[in-house]
Recover the amino acids of this structure.
């Protein structure tokens, strides 16, 4: 009886909103040089950002994304910018002008943002080492950079 | 004189390729995803695509006609943030 | 400056060291748009030279400020409202600058010369109240030799969650002061020879605006709005006059002609209530990404002026960021209920009357073309327009004008 009750209690606890982290939807997309598969990135903290060349706040976020990769890459952070331009050429043209230190993946058909229920451009997700989404950030603002970095370092520190 | 200009203007506007098709497809209403706003984000797709032109025109027609105003609201664009 | 910043950002990227890149390394903070416009009417009528400069920039993540400066000079001659009669009993005219000129008495002058300079400044502040809510505040001031205007406006815009719908509501207020260069305003419907004048004219205008913009599909945007305005105060033009005439037989041509007996200053109502419904559609189509802008405005006021405005613009990309954009505008208006071509001898003066051709029934058509191209990191545009206005009854029943405008916008 006691065992059953404690099992039920554990079940409730595990399924409560405070605890439940959604598993990040998997994807496999081409990058500039090869391919990237989210499944193969377990053990790393992934900062996933959906961006497009026509999105002004996305352009503004580039220096921040570069900085995050630079500062925390050696702690196991992998910044991935999934580009959703329907024409890859627009993205390539943009990248020639604005250098990216981090991995760029191309999703011309826009399948991945759908899987992630992206509600606004840009949206970024912090995915922990177990492949779960621990933070969703809508839009990009200069004054949120510190907060996001704090969350990244916290996720890097967690087991 | 007026008839000449009216006809010229009408021909002018109808001569644009596939214009009639464009009119038909423009009224098809559908919800689009936030990552599908690439076309709407373009400068030429803004309601006021050249602010200098409309600013000047507003003043010209305000001075030479009996009507004023009408425009003045925003919307559309990339829908970012 | 821009090159240095770019080089620095590249350097810090490749060296993987140094301070983080400046937050605005990619998009530059300020946007400057400058323009020159030339407007010229046929028959040595009005000529305008206008210079406009608009500076805007993001002050914070949530705030954008815009300042616009306009400077223009107007010169030439404009119809005064009198009839071109063979004879006139009026021996002097007061032109728009206020000076009196004696005329030799035969053909009545019907155009008055003028020269005016205007300076206008407006300031707008856009603030993101929250993610989906934006407020805009605006102030403007305009000054010329015989006219001053001060105004303020505020509006609020709310987006739905998917940003496919934007609702806007706004209010605005203006205070205008109108006076002749010689001071004061003439007593409405007084005889010009009586030289009866009142103090400067003042008026207040209140405006309300409500609208909705909807994303119809990936390539189409639609807008519908309604605006209302109410003006109370001096709405008369202090320079415009009306001829009181009688028909005479011209012995030379054996036809009827007007003979001007008296001349009166015009007088308009002291209130005006205006409405307009405006709708617009922007749509991209075709393999070459052509864009069509179509708009229609219905206007009506309590002076019985009803107007229709239909405007079409068609942008044709030419490659390398260049485009040409033909433009056509159709306009019709009915006459104000107190518009007259002339006053008849022997009839009592009406309560309100004006012979200003701009209040006459009219059909106008504009055709034009604009060319644009990227240039030096910014955007260059040039356009020409031809305006043809045909008036029903006014003494000067045609207005033909050319517009030339050149603009350059750049971020820095």
């Amino acid at each position: 009886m006691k065992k059953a009750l404690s099992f039920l209690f554990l079940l409730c606890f595990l399924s409560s909103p405070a605890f439940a982290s959604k598993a990040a939807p998997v994807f496999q997309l081409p990058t500039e040089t090869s391919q990237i598969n989210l499944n193969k990135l377990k053990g790393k903290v992934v900062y996933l950002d959906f961006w497009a060349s026509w999105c002004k706040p996305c352009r503004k976020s580039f220096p921040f994304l570069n900085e995050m990769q630079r500062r925390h890459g050696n702690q196991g952070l992998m910044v991935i910018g999934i580009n959703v331009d329907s024409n890859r050429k627009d993205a390539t043209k943009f990248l020639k002008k604005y250098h990216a230190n981090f991995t760029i993946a191309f999703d011309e058909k826009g399948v991945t943002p759908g899987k992630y229920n992206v509600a606004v451009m840009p949206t970024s997700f912090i995915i922990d080492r177990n492949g779960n989404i621990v933070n969703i950030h809508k839009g990009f603002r200069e004054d949120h950079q510190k907060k996001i970095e704090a969350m990244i370092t916290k996720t890097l520190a967690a087991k | 004189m007026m008839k000449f200009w009216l006809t010229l203007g009408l021909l002018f506007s109808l001569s644009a390729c596939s214009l009639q098709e464009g009119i038909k497809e423009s009224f098809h209403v559908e919800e689009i995803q936030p990552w599908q706003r690439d076309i709407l984000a373009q400068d030429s797709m803004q309601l006021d695509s050249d602010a200098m032109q409309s600013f000047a025109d507003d003043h010209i027609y305000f001075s030479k006609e009996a009507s004023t105003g009408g425009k003045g609201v925003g919307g559309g664009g990339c829908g970012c943030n | 400056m821009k090159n240095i910043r770019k080089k620095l950002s590249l350097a810090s990227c490749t060296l993987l060291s140094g301070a983080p890149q400046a937050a605005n390394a990619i998009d530059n903070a300020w946007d400057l748009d400058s323009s020159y416009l030339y407007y010229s009417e046929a028959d040595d009528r009005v000529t305008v030279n206008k210079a406009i400069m608009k500076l805007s920039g993001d002050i914070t993540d949530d705030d954008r400020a815009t300042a616009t400066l306009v400077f223009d000079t107007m010169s030439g001659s404009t119809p005064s409202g009198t009839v071109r009669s063979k004879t006139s009993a009026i021996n002097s005219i007061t032109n728009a600058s206020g000076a009196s000129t004696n005329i030799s008495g035969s053909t009545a002058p019907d155009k008055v010369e003028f020269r005016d300079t205007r300076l206008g400044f407006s300031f707008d502040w856009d603030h993101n109240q929250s993610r989906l809510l934006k407020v805009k505040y605006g102030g403007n001031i305009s000054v010329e030799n015989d006219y001053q205007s001060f105004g303020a406006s505020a509006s609020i815009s709310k987006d739905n969650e998917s940003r496919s719908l934007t609702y806007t509501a706004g209010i605005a207020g203006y205070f205008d002061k109108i006076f002749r260069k010689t001071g004061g305003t003439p007593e409405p419907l007084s005889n010009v020879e009586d030289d009866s004048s009142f103090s400067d004219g003042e008026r207040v205008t209140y405006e309300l605006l409500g609208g909705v913009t909807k994303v119809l599909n990936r390539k189409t945007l639609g807008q519908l709005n309604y605006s209302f305005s109410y003006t109370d105060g001096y709405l008369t033009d202090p320079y415009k006059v009306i001829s009181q005439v009688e028909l005479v037989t011209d012995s030379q041509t054996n036809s009827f002609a007007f003979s001007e007996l008296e001349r009166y200053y015009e007088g308009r109502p002291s209130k005006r209530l205006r409405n307009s419904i405006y709708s617009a559609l922007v749509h991209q189509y075709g393999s070459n990404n052509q864009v069509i802008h179509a708009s229609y405005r219905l206007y009506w006021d309590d002076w019985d002026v009803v107007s229709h405005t239909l405007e079409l613009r068609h942008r044709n990309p030419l490659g390398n960021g260049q485009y040409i954009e033909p433009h056509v505008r159709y306009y019709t208006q009915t006459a104000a209920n107190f518009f007259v071509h002339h006053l008849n001898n022997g009839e009592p003066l009406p309560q309100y009357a004006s012979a200003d051709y701009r209040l006459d029934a009219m059909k106008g058509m504009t055709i034009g073309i604009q060319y644009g191209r990227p240039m030096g990191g910014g955007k260059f545009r040039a356009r020409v327009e031809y305006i043809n206005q045909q008036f029903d009854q006014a003494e000067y029943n045609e207005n033909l004008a050319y517009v030339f405008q050149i603009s350059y916008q750049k971020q820095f």
User: Anything to note?
Assistant: Strands of chain A lie at 28-30, 35-37, 45-51, 77-83, 103-106, 123-127, 133-138. Residues 15-20 of chain A have pLDDT under 50 and may be disordered. Residues 21 and 68 of chain A are 23 Å apart (CA to CA). Chain A touches chain B through 23 residues (CB under 8 Å).
